Please model this.
Amino acid sequence: MIKEVKSEAAMKTFGAQIGALLKSRVVIELVGDVGAGKTTLTKGIATGLGVDEDVQSPSFTISRVYSAHDGLTLAHYDFYRLQDAGIMADELNEAVHDLFTVIIIEWGSVVSGVLPTDRLTIQIESPTESSRRLTINSGGPISAAIEGKL
Ligand SMILES: Nc1ncnc2c1ncn2[C@@H]1O[C@H](COP(=O)(O)OP(=O)(O)OP(=O)(O)O)[C@@H](O)[C@H]1O
Ligand SMILES: [Mg+2]
Model:
């Protein structure tokens, strides 16, 4: 599906709508250039997941973990500029199999071998400075169930 988002606030609202739907494990891959809005969308998803901490870009730490509603954990990864994911690929692989972890990944091509086919992929393009076009695809039943409710 395609979703047009006209402002940063609308991006956060849409993220919160996604986050509120999440009840167990899912992998969400966010694809887009620097400044596309991947972290902004993640902040919204975190709000919808009931995360009360301030979500910051994990560019330097690669991953950040937050507690969310219903015993869920949000694990947010950013592999920007990483040539080799190294041990982080193992950590991600473990998280991907955890039933109660929601995973959001920015710049995930370096870990493409670890990403499950069943993931929600959201590609973000910027037609103008303040508008964004989201192209959302699902690769299996878990992600399709979420996409179907959006
Ligand atoms: N409709 C919109 N949705 C999201 N962000 C927007 C929108 N319009 C403008 N912006 C701005 O675009 C920037 C998006 O930054 P953000 O950190 O979310 O991008 P990113 O994709 O995570 O980049 P990076 O690859 O560097 O991590 C912010 O400065 C935000 O204010
Ligand atoms: Mg980011």
The chain has four helices and seven strands. The pocket of adenosine-5'-triphosphate (ligand 1) is lined by residues 5, 7-8, 11, 32, 34-40, 57, 80, 106, 130-132 (CB under 6 Å). The beta strands are 2-5, 26-31, 63-67, 73-78, 101-106, 120-125, 132-138. The chain has a mean pLDDT of 96.
